[in-house]
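Appendix B. Raw example, untouched.
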Amino acid sequence: MPQKLAPFAQATGIMGHQGELLMTNEVEPHTDDESADEAARSSLPDPAPALEAPEPQLPLPIPAIPSAVPTMQAPILLAIDTCTSRSSIALRDAHMLRAECSWESDRHHTAAVSAQIRRLMAACGIGAEQIGAVAVALGPGSFTGVRCGLAIAKGMAAARGMALIGVSALDVTAAAQPDLGMPIYAAVEIGRSRVALARYEWQNGAATAAGDWSIQGWKDFAASVTAPAWVCGDLSAGLVELLKDHATIAPAPLNLRRAGYLAEIGYRRWQNGDISDPLALIPIYPSENQGVN
């Protein structure tokens, strides 16, 4: 056998150009053509097995009807807030906030947020079967951000039969504030020097919305606030400068909209059987030109 063909013959097992059989194992040359053909066929790999027909697929099970209240089997609530560039998720059981994670992201991707949720669940040793409800911030906020969180929450609720609870992002911000005996203005930045905001007053130890939310430009908002007032939420440096002589600005930790407070609101509603209809739950989007000066 020529030296240059030896490696190739060892790897493939084919006939050489002069009729000798090139095998991975050494064999005697065959002079009989029929014997040579038989030896060549024996060196070929076995034919692939015939494909079997796929088994018929059974219908997918119908998701269970969500429990209107926490149960022993699924006592945990997942909270999701992706309304703005500051996203937050949290896990709460019947007794405590188990975990919380907040981060900044210029763009919301469903896969990235879902990965954060899986990591948080894994860190707590929580399985999907233990989650019985999902609370989601509905906005106001960015179009893409609000849709991202709501899509994940609705998908989980539909797939696993979880209760769904929609909460205003402004209510989440207000829930974190201390009772200092003054009205609260919770704000969410929506771009173009505008904020979505709502006024809250203290009733029985809880911050309660004193009307519908609205959109105002920075200057109009600053001019409408009279002391004493507490302003919190997404506050840019320019807005803080306009407000500093009219109101008390919440410290940085209280301006971060945290999913832990969303979980607290959601769990209380879940315990009271106050869950949302997934088909009727819609995001809260600010008008494109409302509040533009």
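End of appendix B.
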